[in-house]
Amino acid sequence: MKTRHITEIAGALLLARWKQTLVAAVGVTFSIALFITLLGFMEGLNQLLDGLVLNRTPHIRLYNDIRPSDYQPIDLSEEYKQYYNFVSSIKPANSRKEIHNAQRIIEDLRKDPLVLGVAPKITAQVFYNLGNVDVNGIINGVDVEQETKLFSFSDYVTQGNYYDLKNVANSIVLGIGAANTMMAKVGDVITVTTTEGEQFTLKVVGFFQSGISEIDKTQSYASVATTQKLLGESSNYISDIQVKLKNMDLAPSLAPQYKQVYGVDAEDIQTANAQFETGSSVRSIISYAVGLTLLIVSGFGIYNILNMLIYEKMDTIAILKATGFAGSDVKKIFTAISLSIGVFGAIAGAIFGFLFSKIIDAIPFNTDSLPTIETYPIDYGVQYYMIAVLFALVTTYLAGWFPARKASKIDPVEIIRGK
Amino acid sequence: MENNIVLEARAIYKSFYDPVKIDVLKDISFNVKRGEFVSVIGKSGCGKSTLLYILSTMDTDYQGELLIDNISMHGKSEKELAAIRNEKIGFVFQFHYLLNEFTVLKNVMLPGFKLNKYNEAELESRALSLLKDLGIEHLAHKMAHKISGGEKQRVSIARAMINDPLIIMCDEPTGNLDNSNTDMVFDIFKELTEVYHKTLLVVTHDMTFAQNTQRTIEMEDGRIVP
Ligand SMILES: Nc1ncnc2c1ncn2[C@@H]1O[C@H](COP(=O)(O)OP(=O)(O)O)[C@@H](O)[C@H]1O
Ligand SMILES: [Mg+2]
User: Which CATH number belongs to the domain containing residue B189 in this structure?
Assistant: First the structure.
């Protein structure tokens, strides 16, 4: 028995009930299209929300933690070596936040093939002066070019020109929240007081909006040199080295290596932002669950149609068997019917899924907290199409399997005698 | 081959349990030789159809032995029996039983698809020449449900012949036809045995039809009348 003849018979039976089979196929199409759209949309949102933080977070951050020394003098004493020593209220020594030899470490890291880029950073605690009132703030000293290249800094500068940070001496990009509190405009000059008590005037060259208002109220940006000046440090002073890797997943294994090689503290992004991973995966699980449920429901549709078709085509099945078709041939015929519904539904579903995604992608979505976003986010990952199509084929196969088996077991004598 | 027996029944018994035991066939033994035109007659309800379903391998629930082409059908799987039906037995039913989703030509060709002995072009020309012999060549491309009863019965005869079977079995092939169509079908059967040397086993309750066949087996209450 040639496959072509099986499909020819299947096709003829299918066409005889083309309206019902079309309904079943539309069910599959609909569920696949929704599955693809739902997951693309959900994953787009996930990436957007994660990106809010993760895009701007280094994969590995090198710094010097201020903490007491791991070895206290008593640990070095020969006499008390075999004792268990308790020392309470240990205070850190006057160690510096500065990373020793930072410039050399940066050069070294840039040569590492796993590293995408390295950017230095300094943070300075300041008070923004508002007449008599002081507002807490943090100024991040950054290398404008590296920061833009690695952490999309320019995307978040909503007014003014981020590049002026480099060109204009003693300039600052204010967080939008802080700027509103101070009623500052681009071009204004503001005053800040450092923790050492010194006052500086800085020229506002732009506003910064991250989308997280807590950050926008306190954080501002200045160049590395300006910040060094604020802190009264030399031009060698760097407190943080931010490393962006080519593959983010390597961060947890590389961080301890850097820690050892360079003698600094190293924190990877996964440790620093564990909660984001969890949120994303829960959202993904929910959308997969909804999507797969849709596909299963459409499988029941196919099951129904096939059962009905078999009931209607008893005579045909009996004749096929009487003329020498085996039960297995009949089973193949009905499996072919359900699979062709599945294949047709899957292809159409993938196309419609893509179209729906395009439509959502074109819907305007403007929100103050997400300055870089203009339309709803969609992820066009090919994996959703693969999963949907694969799952649809499996469901339709299973949905067809039971009716097909029933058809293969029909006793032709019973049907022929029944007339 | 030492004999030319095509079909042999040896002491076949069959009972239904509905819900009490009814013996429908009792000790049926006979054979059909190559080229014979045999009719089976008997009153309605005497077990003719039941016997034919057993002889055609579709019903396997019986006692006794059935040999087709000198091979016992005992213990054969559903798949093997289907293959035997396909290759060695042609079937004509009372109620025509064509597949309405297909054309007349495809209906005739279907058992040939299963046998897979001829390619599609050969099969088609065989089917067309059969239809031509039966005088319905012009209907080849009509859908099966759009032709008349007599025509349908001729199409099922063509279908029964497509794989060149050892024996053609018919269950009241004229039971549903008017006189002129009955005569025509009978003439076809006669021609099949005389010109094409086919072997035919025809169940009927039409006495005149039976009288014109070579041999008549009469049944009564599930037994063959000696
Ligand atoms: N499935 C069945 N269950 C119970 N009794 C049956 C069944 N099929 C047929 N019979 C009985 O078997 C007998 C023979 O039936 P059948 O072979 O169709 O007779 P015929 O074809 O000679 O008219 C009848 O009495 C009928 O009632
Ligand atoms: Mg009968």
Answer: 3.40.50.300
